[in-house]
Design goal:
41% helix; Aspartate Aminotransferase, domain 2; three-stranded antiparallel sheet; 386 residues; alpha/beta; binds pyridoxal-5'-phosphate; Aspartate Aminotransferase, domain 1; 14 strands; globular
Length: 386
């Protein structure tokens, strides 16, 4: 196929040419003098992105590794953890917590809503002897396009006067949707490279509060590779306890420079605008959004319910074959029922126009019943004539 592939899954996202060029440098000695300034710039830059003045660690790992790090550094066997079934990623994180020997209370959900702050408050109020050691929330549930309101979850925890740690998966929101580690007093924020940070896969991230650091001193889950202590100790002088993903750090430095040049607030506004244009297209086609609450719409992706009797993966296959456009599959319970349009990372109006055009042409080719005019509704919004 000629022309560029359209990678519009909600991660990995398109890697900008600037970042690709930054990665294409000779790998250097990670224990030599040239390395420390690179590590320091990357760590300082990440502090700005997480909005924290505290510790940040970078693992050579996927996001799943950073999940594991958040749990094994703060908790002990049989500790009670409150988690919420917002979708596929929340379910995978729950599975991991159980396999690590934690006692998870998993609040059921319908995969169309975010975490209910009132439910958090009442469950914590009922936990009189403070058995719950952590509340773990996925900020942006990438399987459903639903964004939970972390500031409100924090306020709910405060109202309940409960000392549990707050762990937040910000993997598909960091660098795309407003996020404030310090202001929201999150204890561990979990991120990774291949979504809003516009990098290839391979970096797992934790931002860590002082409370979480204090908890790690007595936490007893076994940890070795993921142990924060040697990371933070070596990072202080710009080094790592084992080989870091040097070339991805070049890319990270460049990606952070791009986010700074645009300005985080403008980055968030751009994502919000593309999400709104996408929702207008979906409604004009006559389809339902997976997300039910307008105050939980995701800015980084939109999950679309396909009419009954049609298979979202068959539609995706046709769109890939005909137009070289990759869309996100339905995950877990939503397999076949939903497809996901990623509009995060390095993205602009014409890329969205192309993406939505591919979907609209694909709907016709796949003979899924829809109303024409989705692309037009999005273009009218983007061009300011609506
Ligand atoms: C992508 C994603 C993950 C998993 O990250 P991996 O890099 O695939 O391990 C976890 N949580 C959320 C919300 C995600 O979007």
């Amino acid at each position: 196929m000629s022309g560029r592939h359209f990678l519009q899954i909600p991660g990995p996202t398109n890697v900008p040419d600037r970042v690709l060029r930054a990665i294409a440098q000779p790998t250097i000695d990670h224990r030599g003098p040239a390395f420390a300034p690179l590590a320091r710039e990357a760590l300082d830059g990440l502090r700005d992105v997480f909005k924290t003045s505290g510790s940040v660690v970078i693992y050579p790992s996927s996001g799943t590794g950073a999940w594991e790090a958040s749990l094994v550094n703060t908790l002990s066997p049989d500790d009670k953890v409150l988690m919420f079934e917002t979708g596929h990623f929340a379910t995978l994180w729950r599975n991991m917590a159980q396999r690590l020997g934690l006692d998870v209370q998993f609040v059921p959900g319908d995969w169309r809503h975010g975490v209910d702050p009132e439910a958090v408050e009442s469950m914590l109020r009922d936990d009189h002897n403070h058995a719950i050691k952590a509340v773990a929330v996925v900020h942006n549930e990438t399987s459903t396009g639903v964004t939970s309101r972390i500031a409100e979850v924090r306020r709910a925890m405060d109202r309940a006067g409960h000392p549990a740690l707050l762990l937040v998966d910000t993997i598909s929101s960091l660098g795309s949707i407003d996020y404030r580690h310090d202001e929201w007093r999150v204890d561990v924020s979990i991120g990774c490279s291949q979504k809003g940070l516009m990098l290839p896969p391979g970096l797992g991230l934790n931002a860590i509060s002082d409370n979480a650091l204090a908890a790690s001193a007595s936490a007893r889950l076994p940890r070795a590779y993921w142990d924060w202590a040697p990371m933070i100790a070596d990072n202080a002088s710009g080094f790592f306890p084992y080989t870091p993903a040097t070339n991805l750090l070049y890319g990270l430095r460049e990606a952070i420079a791009m986010l700074r040049e645009e300005g985080l607030d403008r980055v968030f506004a751009r994502h919000g605008r593309h999400a709104e244009a996408t929702r207008r297209a979906v409604r004009a086609w006559g389809f339902e959004l997976t997300c039910r609450n307008a105050d939980e719409y995701s800015s980084s992706l939109t999950a679309v319910m396909i009419p009954d009797g049609h298979d979202a993966d068959a539609l995706r296959r046709i769109i890939l074959e005909r137009f070289d456009l990759s869309l996100g599959t339905g995950l877990g319970k939503l397999k076949g029922k939903t497809f996901r349009i990623g509009h995060l990372g390095d993205f602009n109006d014409l890329m969205l126009a192309g993406t939505l055009s591919g979907v609209e042409m694909g709907l016709a080719a796949a003979r899924v019943p829809f109303r024409r005019g989705g692309v037009l509704a999005a273009l009218d919004y983007l061009s300011g004539s609506d």
